[in-house]
Amino acid sequence: MKDICTLFKEIFGAPPEAVCSAAGRVNLIGEHVDYCGGKVLPAALTLKCRVAVRKNGRNSVRIAATDIPDRAEIDYADLSAYRGLQWGRYQAGVADEMKRAGYRLVGCDMLYECSVPFGAGLSSSAAIEVATAYALAKAGGNAIDKPALAVLCQRAENDYCGVSCGIMDQYASANGVAGHAMLLDCATLHCEQIPLDLGDCALVLANCNKPHSLVASRYNERRQQVEAALKAARELFPVQTLAALTPDMLEACRPRMKEVVYRRARHVVTECGRVSRSAEVLRRGGLEEFGKLLNASHISLRDDYDVTGPELDALAQAAWERPECLGSRMTGAGFGGCTVSLVKKAGIGAFIEHVGAAYRAAVGRDASFYIAETADGIVEEALS
After folding, report:
1. What digits encode the pLDDT tens for the residues 148-201?
2. Do the beta carbons of residue 332 and residue 123 sit within 8 Å?
3. How far, in Å, CA of 122 to CA of 133, rounded?
4. What positions carry a catalytic annotation?
5. Rounded to the nearest 5°, which phi and psi values hold at 104?
6. pLDDT band for position 382 (cuts 50, 70, 90)
7. Strands 180-185 vs 39-55: parallel, antiparallel or unpaired
């Protein structure tokens, strides 16, 4: 396969001026709490979206990809016109938000190469958004503030693309540090980089390979349900976010909530507790306890938040059956995507063989497996 710089020159007629990338992410624990003001524990991955870029002297961005034939040209004069694009609306949304925020935008040619699997719950959309924002900011000579770019990209996904995601994906994509997980407070954006020393274990991702779309799924419905829970809680307590509730406070609010709304809130409250505990045990290398917290998170996501489904449940169940697996849970928004499992390195082969066979028998589809390695978020590559 031709490298990105060679392909860029073939497509656009000149070599790129820069190549940058933004990372996909795995959320170790803390699912569906980012938009509730909770803390999450993601890590940036070596799976990335790379962008080769060159200024083109136009008032538009011309975009192409290494693995799909789609091309698009996005005119800065009418950025609202691209919401319906299959390929290009994330980039258009980022450009629209950057223009509104006062960034200097110049015309660019951009070629994308993405190793983050689409629809796997590893935030391919955030990686595309953040890589686009960094490339456009750099080409325009703007000052780079990674946390600010992450917030801008979240707004683009919320307002332009119609997905009510929280800040975690974009923040992790931009600000990850290799060898670390990020304890991110989604209410304040305070972030603590926690060394991720897994010893004789590794993180194994299993993709259920079920196509899913956040826009078409029940994701936005969950947002509405937790907003209803917060409204009910505020009748008793002066809280700013649902994550601020303690278990006792939640129980006091229960009579004011529909049962389904209460169960959604219970997941948020208990998951926030699991995140705090996970950060504590990882600081001291308590991998056995961390594995148990992963299992408890999946059960809560299955029973209280109802976002797992038969595919992710089959992967988790098969993982729990293996002695080399310390813990496993779904990661990402759910309704498809991946599980993340903490597995002893010596048993990874047996683990993948068993989980793959059990999953195939349960749902009639093959899973894909990745050994997750952490990486820096935004990276600007040296051109040879």
Report:
1. 999 999 999 999 998 878 899 999 999 999 999 999 999 999 999 999 999 999
2. yes
3. 19
4. 169
5. -80, 120
6. confident
7. antiparallel
